[in-house]
Amino acid sequence: MNRFWAFVKKEFLRIFRDPRTILILFGMPIAQIMIFGYVVKNDIRDVKIAVYDKSKDNVTREITNKILSSGYFLLSEKIDSNNELERIFRKGEVKEIIVFEPDFAKKLENTNTANIQLIADASDANTANLIANYTKAIIYEYVKDLNINNSLAVQIVPEPRMVFNEEMKSVYMFVPGTMALILLLISAMMTSISIAREKELGTMEILLVSPLRPFQIIMGKVMPYIVLSLVNAISIILLGYFVFTVPINGSIILLMFETMLFIFLALSIGIFISTVSKSQQTAMFISIFSLMLPTILLSGFIFPIKNMPLVLQWFCNIVPPKWFIIIIKNIMLKGTGFIYVWKETLILIGMIIFFISLSVRKFKVRLE
């Protein structure tokens, strides 16, 4: 029995000597519960909206003020014509446009009924539905208060309309996110593991003394993953288009250019991970912890970034898939051109330069 407890003690000591094991046992559960606790929320806040008031009377102003004073919405701008609707949604900042019909107060007084159109950006179907429901609840609350002091019951009818995803298909949201996740994992994780395997087995030394230069060795290792990632990207796009009827409203050339750019970014991240990893296990651990979880939780793939605390929103800006998902949704769903995604494109290019620079700095021809 003493031998058994001695063996148990030895196993405890072995676990506590390994910092990575301690991090997995205690760090990851704490990190996950904190992240999920702050990220997974079914409420909204500070949603940017626009108002198209064709009536401009006291009632429409009261309803607008009640919506804005609720704490859920922020007025981004007021619209004066129908031509501005498409422009505002393509910019991507405004998530809902509230349209009051002409002579709103007069119709409410004469017929006891008036209509409000709620136009929501449904490229993120769950958020659009949530925003529309919040707006309708505020309008119904206003009608309830109005009818308390009114002998005749008035009725204001909110009419939701979803743009870019009229059928509210959730697959419109999952295809871009899945594409970003798969490309990142294949390009980054597999590249980092592949290079770390050479270092772990000692074959990297053989490669480095060969006639090939270090740059050629790295390119030779990542070239297959460029081809495989591109094939995966095309497969996802074709499956989304033909099986799930996800539209491609924008330029296919621009879509493929942005996809290749993201693949190069993922490869540069994978190369960087390999420079700081001495084994395949370390490379895989770093890849999963630093790539997969942030992509799922902090990229806007599933959970709206606007719902997160401000600190997490800042952190989301350094998660590469966030910018790629914005680009893909703009091109595929909204049909926008390069003029609407040039900022996100520059951010991706900047990240590529950053990770390549770090990798070159850390890469040593002579292995330690």
How would you describe this protein?
With 368 residues, this protein is α/β, with parallel strands linked by helices. The protein has 3 domains: 2-39, no CATH class; 47-163, abc type-2 transporter like domain (abc type-2 transporter like fold, 3-Layer(aba) Sandwich), CATH 3.40.1710; 171-362, no CATH class. Helices cover 65% and strands 10% of the residues. The chain is built from 14 helices and 5 strands. The chain has helices spanning 2-17, 19-39, 58-68, 83-91, 104-111, 125-148, 171-201, 203-208, 214-242, 252-275, 280-298, 310-316, 320-334, 342-362, and strands at 47-53, 73-78, 96-100, 113-121, 155-163. A 5-stranded mixed β-sheet has the order 2-1-3-4-5, sandwiched between helices. Helix 7 (171-201) packs antiparallel against helix 9, helix 7 runs antiparallel to helix 11 (280-298) and helix 13 runs antiparallel to helix 14 (342-362). It starts with a helix and ends in a 6-residue tail after the last helix. The mean pLDDT is 81.
Principal-axis shape: elongated
Mean pLDDT: 81
Count of separate DSSP helical elements: 14
Q: Gyration radius, to the nearest Å?
A: 26 Å
> Tally of extended strands?
5
Salient structural properties:
368 residues, five-stranded mixed β-sheet, elongated, abc type-2 transporter like fold, 3 domains, 5 strands, alpha/beta
Short description:
This protein is α/β, with parallel strands linked by helices and 368 residues long. Helix content is 65%, strand content 10%.
